[in-house]
Amino acid sequence: MPLLSVEGLGIDFGGLRAVNDVGFGVEPGEIVSVIGPNGAGKTTLFNMISGAYRPARGKVSLDGEAVTGMAPNQLAERGLSRTFQNLQIFQKMSVLENVMTGRHLKARGSLVADLFSTPASRRRTAEARTVASGLLARVGLDRAADQQASSLSYGALKRLEIARALALEPRILLLDEPAAGCNAVETEEIDHLIADVAKSGVAILLVEHDMKMVMRISSHIVVLDRGEKIAEGKPEKVSRDPKVIEAYLGVQEGSGHALG
Amino acid sequence: DIKIGSTVSETGPASSLGDPEAKTLRMLVDEINAAGGVLGEKIELVSYDDAGDPNKARTFATRLIEDDEVVAIVGGSTTATTMSIMQVVADAEIPFISLAGALEIVDPVQPWTFKTPHTDRMACGKIFENMKAGGLTKIGLISGSDGFGASMRKHCVDIAGDYGIEILADEIYGPTDADMTPQLTNLRSKEGVQAILNAGFGQGPAIVTRNYGQLGIKTPLYQSHGVASKAFIELAGPASNGVKIPGTAILIADQLSQDDPQYAVVTAYRKIYEEKAGSPASTFGGYAHDALRLLVDAINRAGAAEPQAIRDAIEQTKGFVGVTGAFNMSATDHLGLDLSAFRMLEIKDGNWVLLQ
Amino acid sequence: MRLSSKHLTLLILLAIVALAPLAFPSNFYYRIGALAFVNGLAVTGLVILIGFAGQVSLGHAGFAGIGAYTCALAPIYLGLHPALAMLLGTVISAGIAWLIGGPILRLKGYYLGVATLGFGILVSMVLANEVPITGGADGREVPELGLRAALKFIGIDLSNAQFWYAFTALFLLGGAWVASNLHDSAAGRALRALHDSEIAAGTVGVDVARYKLSAFVLSAVYASLSGSLLALMNKFITPDVAGFLHSVELVTMTVLGGAGSVPGAIAGATLLTLLPQALTALQAYEHMILGLIMMLVMIFMRDGLVPTLSRALRGRG
Amino acid sequence: MTELLQYLVSGTTVGAAYALVALGFTIIYNASDVVNFAQGEFVMLGGMVTFFAWQAGVPLPLAALLAIVAAAVIGVLLNKLAIERAGAAPVVSLIIITIGASIFLRGGAQLVFDKQLHRFPGFSGDEPMNVGGVTILPQGLWVVAVAVMVFVLLYVFFTRTLTGKAILATANNRVAAKLVGINTDYMMSLSFALSAAIGALAGILMTPISLTSYDLGVPFALKGFAAAMLGGMGVPVGALVGGLLLGLIEALTAGLVSSTYKDAVAFIVILVVLFWMPQGLFGRKSMERV
Amino acid sequence: MLSVENLRSRYGRIEVLHGVDLQVRSGEIVTVVGANGAGKTTLLRCISGVQPISGGNLVFKGEPLQGMPAHRRVALGLAQSPEGRQIFTSLSVEENLRLGAYLFADARVDTDMAEAFAMFPILREKRNLAAGGLSGGQQQMLAISRALMARPACLLLDEPSMGLAPILVAQIMDVIRNLKTLGVTVLLVEQNAYAALRIADRGYVMETGRVTMQGTAEELIADERIRAAYLGV
Ligand SMILES: Nc1ncnc2c1ncn2[C@@H]1O[C@H](COP(=O)(O)OP(=O)(O)OP(=O)(O)O)[C@@H](O)[C@H]1O
Ligand SMILES: Nc1ncnc2c1ncn2[C@@H]1O[C@H](COP(=O)(O)OP(=O)(O)OP(=O)(O)O)[C@@H](O)[C@H]1O
Ligand SMILES: CC(C)C[C@H](N)C(=O)O
Ligand SMILES: [Mg+2]
Ligand SMILES: [Mg+2]
Q1: Domain of life of the organism in this record (chain C) (predicted)?
Q2: Backbone angles phi, psi at B135, to 5 degrees
Q3: Answer CATH for A1-79+171-260 from 3.40.30.10, 3.40.50.720, 3.40.50.300, 3.10.20.70
Q4: How distant is the Cα of A175 from the closest Cα of chain D, in angstroms?
Q5: Which CATH class is domain D2-276?
Q6: Is A259 helix (H, G, I), strand (E, B) or coil?
């Protein structure tokens, strides 16, 4: 049984079927990419899986447990973590604190202990700091650790979100356009990072428009169009699917971008 | 110099009381100093505006005592600020004359606190007397929810029975409410109500009176001494015709006969106030006038500007005629007024007239 | 090894509190100090709620009212010692905060503001209208705490003003210590996180509703203690303590000092406690100047006194 | 029955006044997300300036116009000298500036004018009309009519005019507004001028009914704010309905239930409404996707 | 057309542009590439006047821009599609577009809006929807269209391809090339450096607040250092 499994998921906004009857599964260590035209419903799908929206139809399960409509923090407790297409940074905290907060579930303890700064509370914070520093180094933001997060450039914030999501030590990680705002070289670094994380046994669900990246690292691709799943399979297969080319990839005349 | 302190509500919800009080204190001190001062010394008035906030009043009282080192305090425009100040003067043993209404200020008697206005309980009594005389025994009560209104309401309810008065309806309004029509509609439609009594000060009673007129209510309307100023008549407009209140001589200064014991003091105060402040004198300024005069009188008699001596001298005040009435203090009476100085007044053609 | 900025701040505070009396021209300043501390305590609670968690309350004076009136009433009706009444007040405040926090903390921004405003007004209305119990708008007396006499007995003889200065300072320093601890702890980060993005906070595992509620309850406890101390110190209390104007004053102090900053809370409270005293000399201009100063501080120190000044200092250093 | 109608008349009049104050809040809020705590002082200025001008011999309509202009000028000054200078300060800081401004204006009014209560005659006289036993004040009709008129104008302004949209854009995203060529400083000044003028208008209309004085702003602002929140902040129809509803609740509670707790009932209703509709009756849900 | 000389800018006390020089001639497409945090966005913000400058000169169409408020720069013909879209989330799609032409006559709005809808049909479909409800890529389309509504003489684009599906990236690049034929000058900041350089006339490379390299697009594409650092080939 896959770690994350989605069945018949759907939601409507007004009259619009933003997502309809989408299903797939993600195994530990796998990278499953969701691609599709703008407005296909990818982010909405993420929002339903991660508890930001309550699905109107269908079912999400984690490790066999039905988690449909659970609050984000309950999902986090079950090992699900995500980044956001529209950045959700803790602007007024330092860069390091952002990542430390990502480790909330490991760092939290009794409120009273925190109020009185007991040794246990300080130990938890120290541990979070160590882990967070390590993660910042991993995404190349260690030099900015003490800056206020709002002072980072767009690309840097994208990487900060990844570090924060990793701090949870997730079992399943949802990444919504992690490479947006990064140039080809920076994208490649993120590539490697994601691949590494997957290798450690984390299931990864990825939305990305950078086809080079998607083709390089996906184990499996799900294609959405107008809320429906129109194709699914291995990268090579999907990228040759005429439906996918028509709806999404376009006829590439050797563009440096899409298929490389 | 003799330092006298004051903290009154020059601003805030009770500024219609505190403003004339503060002005009165300043002009009287100037006048006294111009006339040579007290015991050969000038009076220095240190005055603060507590904005009607009891916590501030307490702070200013402390400041007057600890920092400014005054020998006595006049002030406390409202009962709540007065109560705060009382705590401080009791600890520091400094005489204090309050300008607020409630009975609780002088009952039980606190050694260091005195007051000049008639109590709210006396006002109720005076009004009920008049009602009874007119054969009005079933009334509707409407009061402001501020301290003055609530306290007077409580006392009126308390003593109504003593006068054979029955309160059939009891309505409340907020001190800054814009319209009291619903409450008055209820009083109007209450079967058997023969008169309406409004306890309150500030804009409330003016609006009540206007609404009373607009609703065409015919039962007599009584107001408290909280409206005892010319301004009330202006604000309430023609509907104020016929309104009765228990007031003091200052409102009918021009109708006093020359041989009225208060004639001299009232005329003098009215003249100086209206000259300097440019507006008609009110009973509230009168309270401050009496407080300061009482204090100066006591200092003169004590022969020394010492708190203890002043206190004792105030307590021995006898036959002191002020704007509010004749004061006869004693160890058990720190107000020293009786009902005789309270006069029932009625508004006729935009003027206060004495009711017989 | 760096002395953590938390400890440095607390040390500086302690030094100021201890040394300030040397400069007091008269006993009166102890009262001003004590008032600043009492306000500072409530404001520190608001720093947790507004500064950390980003939830605005326009009704926290309501909790101060509960704290104050419990101290006034519990000794009479329950025979409790005032110190225990203070404790009971915090328990009641915390309980009420917990009860109403659930539904109203789902509201955001001004909507939360008006809901808390309503709560504060309800409290002050009850205090003003239930005359037989509370004494009504004219207020009522509060029993003596009695600690000063006890101290005298063991040889520490303080004047009333000195005692309250020291006693309220202890509470303030304790409150500031706790709030600073919170700031740098997991719970504090959770609060600050949900301030910036509730959805992201939820995603990292923060139970947003629960943490908001904790901050609300905690700040209610601070406000309640502040009200209790005020009542015990003044030995007299009126419903004004719970009033809308007091609530707004507390929020103003919080923001003037610097909403997210614990020392800012104390600076803001001190500034707004001192200013009206300093401005009495200006007589009729007092209010205009007070308003003007508030505006100027916010124009030139947008993030509040302490954050702006400390940034300026660090920049030079 | 006549009693009930009388409560309704009273509630509608007072409610229309609340609605006017709430409508005043709407504009500055729509331009900046700031709830202007000095809004009540604009109401006060309307009443006070009119009174003193009228007393000095200026005919009442002219005095009222003068007051509206004066309030608008003060509103613009408040924006230019304070809000604009604070630049990109956080919204809470701007709110504190408006609190400071409210204290400043109140202090100024007691100095320039006085601390007394004042009143001038109603526009169509003070003679009440009796309609089937129900008393109606001509001035009450003025208040209601003007509130409805201001509502219609604002509704059209925000939904039909480009300037109205530009104001909304300014609050929604200041930087983006500048990037499309909106003079955001001007939009702010405009919104302060309009808000102040509407506030002053409320003060002028209400003075014959509820009197005016230097410190009358706070209670009006409080009720206007509550009304705006009840209806949904920033939406003209919300301000109108919220104001009328609040006035009616107060009057009906005072008349039928208990005058002691009429304000309490009003706030409880607000709490209940917000519980079911966290954005107020007509409030927009914020549209932020993640 | 647009000249930037020795431009300096800071956030608070920290200077992030340390003297940037850059020229855009009329009718040119000029692209700026650089790593995260190099200062590209800051540069565009300075040109548009939403970021204060602390030194240097900005001249547009012969007019110095220093001290000129942002809205007057738009009137002069400078429009920007900013990083992170910055659409008016609570206004409808149509209102967003209408405000794009805020300073300009109503007469041309309808045709321009029709053009925008023709370019991105999805925007027409959602014209009455609050823009905050759009998907990320749709918002990007809106931001670009909104900038075009001003019919700018010089268009500043900050990462226009971000979040767009491949098929649209190609389309956007075509649109930009098209603008050139209409005489519009374009200053393009792009992470998708390869695509950008392919349509650009010239390019600049920014590193930590400075211009470190410049040349024609062909030169830059051919440069080994650039290929290694930005093109990833
Ligand atoms: N809250 C909402 N209200 C109205 N419509 C919405 C809402 N959220 C999403 N939609 C619509 O649902 C559709 C799917 O949006 P979604 O953000 O999931 O697309 P996406 O696949 O992530 O696109 P992109 O690649 O551009 O990010 C879009 O047409 C969008 O307009
Ligand atoms: N609001 C801010 N406050 C402080 N520093 C900032 C702020 N915005 C940006 N910076 C800093 O300015 C520098 C330049 O940032 P800028 O956003 O211009 O970079 P960029 O080249 O656009 O990067 P990206 O490719 O990631 O968008 C970076 O070091 C960044 O950290
Ligand atoms: C009218 C006055 C007698 C009122 C009184 N000063 C009080 O408020 O207590
Ligand atoms: Mg998306
Ligand atoms: Mg950038």
Answers
A1: Bacteria
A2: 75, 20
A3: 3.40.50.300
A4: 12
A5: mainly alpha
A6: coil
Domain range summary for chain A, segments of one domain joined by +:
1-79+171-260, 88-169
**In a structure prediction context, what are the per-residue pLDDT tens digits for chain E, which is 233 residues long?**
899 999 999 998 899 999 999 999 999 999 999 999 999 999 999 999 999 999 999 999 999 999 999 999 999 999 999 999 999 999 999 999 999 999 987 888 999 999 999 999 999 999 999 999 999 999 999 999 999 999 999 999 999 999 999 999 999 999 999 999 999 999 999 998 989 999 999 999 999 999 999 999 999 999 999 888 888 76
Ligand nearest to the Cα of E36, by number: 2
Rounded Cα distance, B312 and B112, in Å = 9
Q: Please, which pLDDT band fits residue C281 given cuts at 50, 70 and 90?
A: confident
CA gap A178, A162 in Å, rounded: 7
pLDDT of B76 reads 94
CATH class of the structural domain A88-169: alpha beta
ipTM above 0.85, yes or no: yes
Domain positions in chain D: 2-276
Long-range contacts of B258-265 (CB under 8 A, 24+ apart): B261/B321, B261/B326, B262/B321, B262/B322, B262/B323, B262/B325, B262/B326, B262/B341, B265/B293, B265/B321, B265/B322, B265/B323
Contacts of D218 in chain B (CB under 8 A): 176
Taking the Cβ of residue B277 and every Cβ of chain D, the question of whether any pair is shorter than 8 Å is answered with: no
From A152, A160, A177, A189, the mutation candidate for ligand 2 (largest count of ligand atoms within 8 A of CB) is: A152
And the tokens for A43?
A: 């982010």
Say whether D162 and E98 touch across the interface (CB within 8 A): yes
Question: Omega of the bond prior to B108 within 30 degrees of 0, cis?
Answer: yes
Token pair of D72, please?
Answer: 């608008």
What chain E holds in terms of domains, given with CATH numbers, is: 2-83+152-229 (3.40.50.300)
Q: Cβ of C197 and A88 within 8 Å?
A: yes
> Ligand 3 pocket, B287 CB below 6 A?
no
Summarised one tens digit per residue, pLDDT across range B204-217 is 999 999 999 999 99
For chains A and C, count residue pairs whose Cβ atoms are closer than 8 Å.
Answer: 112
Is residue E157 within 8 A of residue E186, CB to CB? The reply is yes
Q: E-chain residues within 8 Å CB-CB of D288?
A: 89, 132
CA C227 to chain centre: 8
- Residue D260: pLDDT band (50, 70, 90) is confident
What rounded mean pLDDT belongs to chain E?
94
pLDDT of res. A183: 87
Contact E36 A249 (CB under 8 A): no
E198: contact with A, CB 8 A cutoff = yes
Cα(C275) to ligand 3 centroid in Å equals 28
Is residue A260 scored above 80 in pLDDT?
Answer: no
Over its C-alpha atoms, chain B yields an Rg (Å, rounded) of 20
User: Ligand 2: which atom is nearest the Cα of residue E34?
Assistant: 21
Residue D133 contacts B, CB cutoff 8 Å: no
Q: How far is CA D71 from CA B184, C293, D59, D75, D77, in A?
A: 34, 22, 18, 6, 10
Measure the CA–CA gap between E113 and B184, rounded to whole angstroms. Answer: 61
For chain C, which residues make up each domain, given as ranges?
A: 32-244
**pLDDT band per the 50, 70, 90 thresholds, residue A257:** very low
pLDDT of residue A252: 55
Long-range contacts of E140-143 (CB under 8 A, 24+ apart): E140/A38, E140/E85, E140/E164, E141/A38, E141/E168, E142/E85, E142/E87, E142/E93, E142/E96, E142/E97, E143/E81, E143/E82, E143/E85, E143/E86, E143/E87
The residues, ordered by sequence, that sit 6+ positions from B308 with a Cβ below 8 Å of its Cβ are B93
Query: How far apart are alpha carbons A4 and D257 in whole angstroms?
Result: 58
Mean predicted lDDT score pLDDT of chain C: 93
